[in-house]
Every structure is written in structure tokens, then in C-alpha cells.
Amino acid sequence: MVDDHEVVREGLVAVLAQDPRFEIVGTASTGREAVELVRRTRPDVAILDLRLPDTPGDALCRELRALLPDLAVIVLSSSLSEDSVRSAIEAGASSYVTKAAGIAELRAALARTGPGADGPPMTVSQIVRRLQQFVEERVDDDAPTPQQARVLQLAAEGMTYREIARRLVLSEATVRFHIQNLKLKYGAASKTDLIVRAIRQGLVAPDEGGGP
């Protein structure tokens, strides 16, 4: 897992680690760390953010594939266009997933990639159409998921990430991941801004100081 944003990286790891089909062998925040990690662990699949602080994602994809030719690479990006998808595929990526498409699509991409992959690889046009459909469906469904709603309510009650994690029997990284996704969904600049917006929209009840 290669992503320079710690909340995104650790949140994805926490969620994917709950799926028995996947084993997370390591994480990296830069291209240099990714090269060393792949050299040391020799994974089947690498999930790679397209924008890293030290190396363009497509260049890193080529470098990792040269280092380990059997490595399958899933590019994870905030943007979606035929040009960006084509650039990633031409660099050797097996699949391309936008962060807006959500964890379900990342799991599906993993199932289509690496050992025991389900079906043939998708074309650039197929990838773009599939991701556009996922994004449109997520935009139409503006409500938080049940678990996101529970996390949001406890945050509105003043609980810390650690306290929410203990209450819901989650990892702290998963709680942070949910808050980050909710901030993106509702255009919030911070956790406080997210809670204010959620209260205004009636998504949560404000904390009245009575305690949990």
C-alpha cells in the first residue's frame, strides 16, 4: 500500500485487513520507500497512489514492474480521465481505481488482479465507464453508511478517535478513515466543520453535555 496521506493509507489497510482474501505485507509513503518495500517483501499486488511527493505514479509503476515483473499494480487516484487511466495502464498497471469510487470497488479491483484473478483485464474504456458509474451512484446516495453514521454521531458527542474506536470495537485508523471519507463527501475542511454541517443537515444530534 503506497500513499503519502497517512489517514488514507492506514484507513485502507485497516479495512482491507478485515478481508480474509488479502494480506497486507507493508505500507510506504514515498516512491523510494515503495521500491525498498517491494524489493524486501516481493508482494503479489501493489496499491499505488498516482501522486507521491518524490516520484510520479506512472514512473514508479514502471520501476516496480521492472524490479518485480510479476507484480500487479493497482493505481489509486483522486482524478478520472481516459488519459490518466491510459497513462497508468501503459506504465504497466493492471487496474485503476478512483478514491471516490469507494472501498467496494478497490476490493473488486483486487479480486480481478494478481493470483486467482477473476476474469480478463478490463480495457481503458471499460475502467472509465465502471468508475464513472460508481461515482455517480455514490453521489446519488448522499447519506452516510450505518457505520459512518455511528462514528459521526459519537464524534458530535465529543468523543475522541480512540474513544469512538473503543465504543464501536474498531481500530482508530478505521475511525479516522471514516471521518476522512465523510469530510470528502460533505466538503468539510475539518472534523469540526464536518460535525457542524452534519448537525445542520440533521444527520446527527448535537451534544447536549449529558455524556454518553
From TrEMBL:
HTH luxR-type domain: from which residue to which, for each copy? 137-202
Q: Which residues carry this modification: 4-aspartylphosphate?
A: 49
Q: Where is the Response regulatory domain?
A: 1-114
Q: Which GO terms describe its molecular function?
A: DNA binding
Output one GO BP term. Answer: phosphorelay signal transduction system
List the InterPro entries.
CheY-like_superfamily (IPR011006), NreC/VraR/RcsB-like_REC (IPR058245), Sig_transdc_resp-reg_C-effctor (IPR016032), Sig_transdc_resp-reg_receiver (IPR001789), Tscrpt_reg_LuxR_C (IPR000792), WalR-like (IPR039420)
Q: Which UniProt keywords apply?
A: DNA-binding, Phosphoprotein
Keyword match Protein transport: no
Pfam entry (one): Response_reg
Record's PANTHER family? TWO-COMPONENT RESPONSE REGULATOR
Protein's UniProt name: Response regulator transcription factor
